[in-house]
Amino acid sequence: MNIKEEIKEIMPEVINLRRTFHMHPELGFQEFETSQIISSYLENLGLEVKKNIAKTGVLGILKGKEEGKTVLIRADIDALPIEELNDVPYKSKNKGAMHACGHDGHTAILLGTAKVLTKYKDLLKGTVKFAFQPAEELPPGGAELMIKEGILENPNVDKVYALHLANHLPAGKIGIREGIFCAQADAFTIKVKGKGGHGSAPDKTVDPIIISTYIVQALQVIPSREIDPHTPFVLSVCKIQSGNAFNVIPEEAEIKGTVRSFDKMLAEKVAKRIEIISKNIAQAFRGEVELEYEFGYPPGKNDEKEAKFVRKIAEEVVGKENVEEDKPSMGGEDFSYFLEERPGVMFWLGSRNEEKGLIHPHHSSYFDFDESVMAIGIEMFVRIVLENLL
Hints:
Layout: H1 3-23, H2 32-44, E1 48-53, E2 57-63, E3 66-76, H3 103-118, E4 125-133, H4 143-148, E5 159-170, E6 174-176, E7 179-182, E8 184-193, E9 197-198, H5 208-219, H6 221-226, E10 233-242, E11 248-249, E12 252-261, H7 264-284, E13 288-297, E14 300-302, H8 304-318, E15 323-325, H9 336-341, E16 344-352, H10 374-389
Parallel strand pairs: 3-4, 3-5, 5-16, 6-15
Antiparallel strand pairs: 1-2, 2-4, 6-16, 7-14, 8-12, 8-13, 9-11, 10-12
């Protein structure tokens, strides 16, 4: 069994797959071409394939010679609504869409994993499910929907695993954390209603822009004065939109933002505070507000036993000196729904390469990653499955 050599042989194919996905990015629940490529590839490997799960998701099933546990590995397949600015041969051909978070790499890694594991089919005591999930970037996301449609059943899944490329870690490093590794990601919209009029006669209006500015400032009192300073918490206003003329005070304004925390109860408390603060400020200035608060993906929490198990494998793959206890992220991740249902792990696969200029963060128009690390991702998944099912 020479796993590294087998992976080395298929890497040109894996890189080509990644670049194909990168050139043809598709947004959440619109991944039709992506899903077709995935399905065809898995069918050619001889796997049982289920399509149109959670609209555009795909599930590949590899059954071993003997019965046993079932392991699920997940990759997200959607892109972001970003215009790519990289000058590379595999630049996005779909205007306004880009794989700026590495999901093209995740998908190629999982396909490569499936190809290697088919060679060991007769040795496996159990089943491997390869889940290609849509809409990770589009809350409420595709993970919860795939679970509701039964991908953890028939046969019952015992453990779940995923990875995420990480440009904050150098290529060749792996980050693993026991317990919480990412935040609950909530979204809010505050619609401010005033009374429009001429910009030269503000006394005859109720200015929603003025109200909005006071609300935005007041919301920052929540993290600075109402949350324990030792508690990880973020409240960011990311969009204010109102009016379309220099001399017209508009009727309405809209404020959009996000709340990130590791505690569901804290998120519920903050949602109530946002409503009270915004409504009272609006009332003080003779206006009104409506709040829409969306509780997003729950905090991602790795199973401690599984984290230790994956750490051991990572140390074998890249060396103990290259495995780090990664800091928890305030980003959101809908793989957390899988981790609420079954024990498992998401780990970080370092993909930064300063010599190649691959330094830009996720969700940047210039994001790209070191493709060579996909071999490490494949080896990690292959060894995780073999350790579970041999």
